Amino acid sequence: MIETRLLAECPSVKKISGNLPKELLGFCSDTRAYKHPAMFMAYPGSRHNPLSYVEPLLKEGCPVVIFESSMENEGLVEQLQEKYPAVCFVGVQDAVTFTQELGTRHVRGWQKNGGRVFAISGSNGKTTHKEMLAFLLKTVMPNEMVATEKNNNNHLGVPLTVLQIRPETKICVLELGSNHPGEIKVLCDLALPDSGLVTNIGATHLEFFGSEEKVFLEEGYLYHAVGDGLFFQNLDDVFLKTIPRAKGTVTFSAKGEADIRFKAETGQVQIDGKLGHEILRNKTLTGTHNLTNMATAWCIAVSLFPEKRGVLTAAASLFRPTANRSEWKEHAGKKIYLDAYNANPSSMKVALSGFFEWLKAHDIAESDALIVLGDMNELGDNGPAYHRELGEYLRQWPDAHNVFIGRFAAHYLEGRGLGTCYPDAARFKGLEWEHMTQGKTHLFIKGSRSLQLESLLAIT
Predict the structure, then answer these.
(1) In terms of DSSP H, where are the helices of 163-219?
(2) Is 7 helix (H, G, I), strand (E, B) or coil?
(3) pTM for this model (two decimals)
(4) How many CA atoms lie within 13 A of 410 on its CB side?
(5) Which is it for strands 116-121 and 88-92: parallel, antiparallel or unpaired?
(6) 374 in Cβ contact with 451 (< 8 Å)
(7) Model confidence over 281-300: pLDDT tens digits?
(8) How far is the C-alpha of 11 from the C-alpha of 101, rounded, in Å?
(9) Are strands 334-339 and 327-331 parallel, antiparallel or unpaired?
(10) How far is CA 367 from the centre of its chain?
(11) What's the CATH architecture for 327-457?
(12) 301 with 312: CB under 8 angstroms?
């Protein structure tokens, strides 16, 4: 709920017609999701002008409508004002800029009253960590937590998330995404995180960053934004371990000494160190990387809310992966590990390792598995080399059958030496899906979102 006086403080506001109400209001930008009382933000659309559909909301009592100033919109607003004189219309120069200005002012006032913003950046696992942390916190404080929904982690998604903060909210969990230099700083300046985690640094969006060192400069900016606040430092990452220790730093590792140490095996992860001893159990998480992700999320939650420790431990066993992200599915009598949302060299390697760890733990032969890999996008000029390297990585599981899909399929094959290539998922599904999967009990499917590999299972 937002103090309406903040609207008048935003520099991008050009004109306020009518009186701003004194009550706290929610923030809504979808006429289908409007719940009174809330202000309505009419973002300009490519096909439809939302001001043409706002009248039902005004009849319901919507007290404030915000719109982007233009000749067309001014005319529509003038007509609406005549019919609904009690409504306050706020014209802004740019709708996105206004949302950012309002979001920052809203979160700053909330923080002064004790609110916490925990932000997550990094090359891989941002959404997984966010989903895990949000799940744990929602279990223990369902009405006092706000988190990024889906993948709304950009210059508009972040302010829209913080604008959902209500007076009773105690913590806001944000995912910060970036594919161009400087974007993490922009998001930190918008959301004002006081605590955070950088998951890891890998070969992501190299088309725009050029090198992993520059990815580190981008993703690692969160450390500087947090300052002396609570910051979780991954000592197993070659880049992140070089960050100087600050007052609020908590180090963690699955490989060596740290404030918190993890030891993962099939179905469980042991935690030792600063937070004492704990064992988390979850049979739905595949691979040691996902178990340590859960352990990290648990440590963050316990550090923020130590009095909830027991409930958080119980909640860790209940988490299930979200759709198309490291989830097991049953399809046509086969067990399928599906991660069709994103892919890059480091995430692909840990996912493959986790899959084969799971097969070994369950006494399933490699020859019973079919590996379906799609393109890893946005790797720049080194894209072919990264795909060849991943193909070479597959050689450690020689008995598994391999299918490569996309424009880099031949480079996967060049590295692996064995496999079948297809230009797209539709061609593979139409020509060889039934034949290639016959006799296979377990499938691994992973690739960048643009390939829509979930379509192989007729999943929408």
Answers:
(1) 183-191, 206-209, 212-219
(2) helix
(3) 0.83
(4) 2
(5) unpaired
(6) yes
(7) 998 888 888 999 999 999 99
(8) 8
(9) antiparallel
(10) 34
(11) Alpha-Beta Complex (3.90)
(12) yes
